Amino acid sequence: MIASIRAAWFADRRRPAVWAVTVTWILLALVFGLGIPYVVHRTLVGRPEQAESAEKLLATVLPAQLVTTGIGLFPLFGGAIVVVLGAVVVGNEYRWGTLNLILAQRPGRAQVLLGRAAVLCGLSLLIAVLTFATLAVTTAVLAGLEGLAAAWPSAAEVLGAVAAAWLICTAHASLGYFLAIAFRSTATAIAVGLVWTLIVENAVSGLATVVTVPGVLQKLLLSPSSGALAGALGARSQFDGGTPGVIESSGALLPAAVLVAHVLVMVGLGVWLTGRRDVA
Prior knowledge:
The chain has helices spanning 2-12, 16-44, 51-60, 66-72, 74-96, 98-104, 109-145, 155-183, 186-207, 212-218, 222-232, 253-276. By secondary structure, it is mainly alpha-helical. Helix 1 (2-12) crosses helix 7 (109-145), helix 2 (16-44) runs antiparallel to helix 3 (51-60) and helix 8 (155-183) packs across helix 9. The longest helix has 37 residues, at 109-145. It is globular and about 70 Å long.
């Protein structure tokens, strides 16, 4: 198992697509999480009738709001990006025909696929840590530009937000992982994964506000559970002027449990499906 993890990490860290996805997400997090609110704040400064709005926007890009601003980006924007990562990591093995070569060298199918899943979990953690580190540095710079003292959240709050972001990323990556195995195609896995997370699940989430049955189903879906976990950590919901994808939640336990179940089910189905059919 250790050998499979080392081999998967050796391959994935050299894939340009992996780093392209990572850098793209961090840039998007900076633009949507801090850049746009700060630019709008600067635009409103000097307008007495917009003074309150300007102050609210400034507060969201300062270190004190690092946890709520950061975790609010992951349910919709970050999740979609990481679905692509999961599809790329596994799907390219089918595209290039390297999975047959790996299995010909005698590791079992389950061992190889679990090694890929473990590395994907590690990449998700790396993305979560890099995102919050980049946001922290940027918020400190913005506070300095505004001549304000940096008031940071507690270490426990930051670690909790990073752990929640890691779980959200891992759950979405596992969906891309399974779809790449199911379709044996990177492009198809990305297309289906994005349509499912961005359109289908969010449509069900919207219906849950007016229909009872989808409301029960909503609690079991990937994107709404991610939004509920972010909401439990203090991110404002999309219905309260917050980030799209965030949902009000009374607690983090249920959405976290659903996300863990998603990871286990998607990885388990991927390993099972690979063992039941021809690889090529």
